[in-house]
Specification:
heterodimer; A: 6-stranded mixed sheet; 5-stranded antiparallel sheet; 0% helix; B: mainly beta
């Protein structure tokens, strides 16, 4: 069974500081991994995804994540936080088996606050 | 590309009535659509998976007679909350998947349901 753990339900950084949001996964088969962002009262927007190609994945808005199999991690980073980055971030996993229905298993979410 | 819409964005209904929420893929055909429920400050909980032309697959604990899902075409899925009660008040989000090889889901903007 797959599961996702996001360490820290709330992260606060200063504008211009490094953003690091942690995600660890558990999967019995190679997974696809995703990071989504959600602004208040909106749906989810894909930031980036890992699909077994390059382990360092670059996404939108300057975000990137590195897949580390040995650590079963897929942490999200951004070198310099912007006020507009304040939102809820979700890590999700899906097994690389197409007949599993493509279900996404979400982590609990991390709320990112950015201080001026 | 890959835009998903939901209608309505916000609905208030009286206890005991039914309400229908539509999910449409605007610029692609969706082989699979998913319905999620999100409580305040919480992650997304998968309610059901629907494939065009077949019955929806509900997650454990989700009442299929209460949450009726219809996926009549490759671009439209509907969720009907029957005999709604205040505890059904929530944020409902749909997503769509393009094909079986694509594990990425494209999310709608969500529907805020309030039952009075």
């Amino acid at each position: 069974a797959q599961s996702v753990t996001q360490l820290g339900s709330h992260v606060s950084v200063s504008e211009g500081a490094l953003v690091l949001l942690r995600c660890n996964y558990s999967s019995s088969v190679p997974p696809y991994l995703f990071w989504y962002v959600q602004y208040p009262n909106q749906g989810l927007q894909l930031l980036l995804k890992y699909t077994s190609a390059a382990t360092l994945v670059k996404g939108i808005n300057g975000f990137e994540a590195e897949f580390k199999k040995s650590e079963t991690s897929f942490h999200l980073t951004k070198p310099s936080a912007h006020m507009s980055d304040a939102a809820e971030y979700f890590c999700a996993v899906s097994p690389m088996i197409y007949n599993q229905g493509g279900k996404l298993i979400f982590g609990q979410g991390t709320e990112l606050s950015v201080k001026p | 590309g890959a835009v998903v819409s939901q209608h309505p964005s916000r609905v208030i209904c009286k206890s005991g009535t039914s309400v229908k929420i539509e999910c449409r893929s605007l610029d692609f055909q969706a082989t699979t659509m998913f319905w999620y429920r999100q409580f305040p400050k919480k992650s997304l909980m998968l309610m059901a998976t629907s494939n065009e032309g077949s019955k929806a697959t509900y997650e454990q604990g989700v009442e299929k007679d209460k949450f009726l899902i219809n996926h009549a075409s490759l671009t439209l899925s509907t969720l009907t909350v029957t005999s709604a009660h205040p505890e059904d008040s929530s944020f409902y989000i749909c997503s769509a998947r393009r094909d079986l090889r694509d594990h990425e889901q494209y999310f709608g903007p969500g529907t805020r349901l309030t039952v009075t």
